[in-house]
Specification:
Order of helices and strands: EHEHEHEHHEHEEHEEEHEEHEHH
Helix content: 25-40%
Number of helices: 11
Structural class: alpha/beta
Strand content: 15-25%
Bound molecules: uridine-diphosphate-N-acetylglucosamine
Largest sheet: 7 strands, parallel
Length: 357
């Protein structure tokens, strides 16, 4: 096996984003040195300053597009990476239907450029951020990893196609070590309240919307459908704490350092929670009551799904340790401390600013 797999320097694409920034914190905690590649299209420079506040280590930032082959070649020349966490990509489900080509360009061509640069540099340990969205709306829960691909939108199809491309690559060359992590619904924030999720504009997802209602920047939450065949009629999802997801990346990195081939693996708790359960938990966490309106079902929504989380435990030695209440407490702490997200906030790093190349 390539000895560089053991190098502590890890490239994190999308490292200034929601999951990427938490992954950097977990990496540093485990003794790795993340180098972040991010275009800052969705990620935020302040996230890197906050990582420094939390960990005492300021990751270097390489600000470039994941499709920029020349920049990638230079980056792999400048550093000897032990592996790559690939989180950069587009992920807005609404937008993906209106603008599928951008999704294929960034998610597919971006990964292709990255993997080419890795191969040229002899770095063949890769952890790819995939999504449970590859299973589509009709998979039977708990969903095992061998459920078929059945994504219902272009975003989900780009994830399935990247997984397929990586499987073909591994098939062609046994020097590659790859793990594809299929996240269920990552929510919450680092317990410090210094990093978290702040989507641009109106949030599409439940937890950020709920947080904005609780803080008073939105008047009420619309519950999208109360007539599903679930215990309380609302949609059920497998919410998983973003720090558990971050720790899952570290476990996957250790796995690819040991084992060749490709592993597709779910990162979820194995337990579903309904929209009403999430609302109650958030009300307890925040001590505020959430104004709720009942609306119609959201087109394309699945009634209920959650992970079979057993493979992650068996192969990665990973399981989610944090429950729904902790997810809500941590989301709320982040929201309270950063009512407008990172924007408008002064950098708080005690340490040197990350260098922008
Ligand atoms: C969405 C994405 C999925 C992505 C995931 C990331 C879709 C179809 N899928 O999943 O690809 O990986 O986010 O976390 O968008 N809800 C409300 N009111 C709201 C918002 C949501 O009732 O204002 C309900 C939804 O109907 C659903 C649940 O809350 O039952 C969770 O929704 P959301 O947070 O948007 O996640 P997903 O739809 O599961």
């Amino acid at each position: 096996m390539d000895p560089d797999v053991h190098s502590r320097k890890i490239l994190v694409t999308g490292g200034a984003g929601f999951i990427g920034s938490h992954a950097c914190v977990a990496l540093i905690g485990a003794g790795y040195l993340p180098v972040v590649l991010d275009s800052l299209a969705n990620g935020n420079i302040h996230a890197l300053h906050r990582i420094a506040d939390i960990t005492g280590v300021a990751p270097d930032l390489v600000r470039c597009d994941i499709r920029d082959a020349a920049a990638l070649a230079e980056l792999f020349k400048a550093h000897r990476f032990g592996g790559v966490l690939h989180l950069a990509g587009l992920k807005a489900v609404g937008e993906t239907v209106a603008d599928p080509l951008s999704y294929y360009e960034v998610n597919m061509a971006g990964t292709l450029a990255l993997v080419r640069a890795m191969g040229n540099a002899g770095v063949r340990a890769l952890v790819f951020s995939s999504s449970a969205t590859v299973y589509g709306a009709n998979a039977r829960s708990p969903i095992p990893e061998d459920a078929p691909y059945a994504a219902v939108n272009p975003y989900g199809r780009t994830k399935a196609m990247v997984e397929t491309m990586l499987a073909d690559l591994v098939q062609s060359d046994d020097r590659w070590h790859v793990a594809c992590l299929r996240f269920f619904n990552p929510v919450g924030a680092h317990e410090s309240g210094l990093i978290g999720e702040h989507p641009h504009g109106r949030p599409n997802n439940l937890m950020p919307y709920l947080s904005q209602v609780a803080i008073g920047s939105r008047s009420h939450l619309v519950v999208h459908g109360t007539d599903y065949a679930t215990a309380d009629g609302t949609g059920v999802r497998d919410y998983v704490h973003v720090m558990d997801v971050a720790e899952g990346h570290v476990a996957a990195l250790r796995h690819v350092a040991r084992e060749p081939g490709i592993l597709m693996v779910n990162l979820g708790t194995g337990r579903g929670a309904s929209v009403l359960e999430v609302i109650s938990s958030f009300e307890r966490a925040s001590g505020r009551s959430i104004a709720v309106h009942v609306g119609p079902r959201r087109p394309g929504d699945a009634p209920a799904y959650w992970a079979d989380a057993s493979l992650a435990e068996a192969r990665l030695g990973w399981r989610a340790r944090r429950g729904l209440d902790e997810m809500c407490v941590d989301s709320w702490r982040w929201q309270m401390r950063n009512p407008w997200g990172f924007d408008g906030s002064a950098p708080t790093a005690r340490n040197a600013e990350p260098s922008a190349h």
